[in-house]
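Board notes (copied after class):
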Amino acid sequence: MSSLHTIKMLVSYDGTDFSGWQLQPGKRTVQGELELALGRVLKAGVKTAAAGRTDAGVHATGQVVSFVTPVVIPGPAWVPAMNSVLGRDVAVWWAEEVSEDFHARHSALCRSYRYTVLVGKPRSPVLARYAAWVGMPLVVEPMREVWSSLLGRHDFSAFMSTGSDPANPICQILDARVEEDGDLLHFHITADHFLYNMVRRLVGTVLRVGKGHLDAAGFRDTWLGRATRPSGPTAPANGLTFIGVGYPERFEWVTDRLERNMTGCDPFGRTRRIS
């Protein structure tokens, strides 16, 4: 029997003051903070893997992290142990031991993001860290139409930035919804994988539709690379939140208590909307 234990953690963070998830020399990152905290708890160095490598300024409520450790800690003890040494802008919501072949990134089948926009009102200092601001009314139905057209398997080369894998531009979109919540618009999207900056470039392009600067046909031309103007602009990072990950059923959480706190993507088509 292996003396090593594979741990799966659900992590939430405010990305404003981080230079993204991934370790970078001389910069504060989520991975860096989490590994420092794990080192304090376990009294040993640990290398973590995340389901999604979020960029600077991007938030998460459903980030999944995995790592291997020889130290045994009872599942319920992980949350208070970690949160007692983490800063106020990152927290562990749940943790449990899983089978040794689990990997937060490589085992994932899909990932879900939400992009939030505050529309039409004066800018909000309270929401400024978590929602992009458009200081004019937007026409929602055309945006909803083009956002829904993303569903299915498509080439998203027109919406990728430098740093994407040009050999893998085909993404399967499993969910694409626009929800209105008072003065807020939420763009939900779930896919088997995403290209670098893809969600933010999609939102930036769809906002042009909502402002009346682009119609559905123009959006389609942009998507197909026939437009004279490229996609975007890239929407600001502060509006983007990583909200969930879908795994094969054998890797799903043993407990369902975390479902009161998050909505995950589900490649099997089951409803997991949380009230």
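Comment from the instructor: Strands lie at 5-13, 49-50, 59-69, 90-98, 110-119, 132-134, 152-155, 170-181, 184-191, 240-246. The chain has two domains: 5-107, 110-241.
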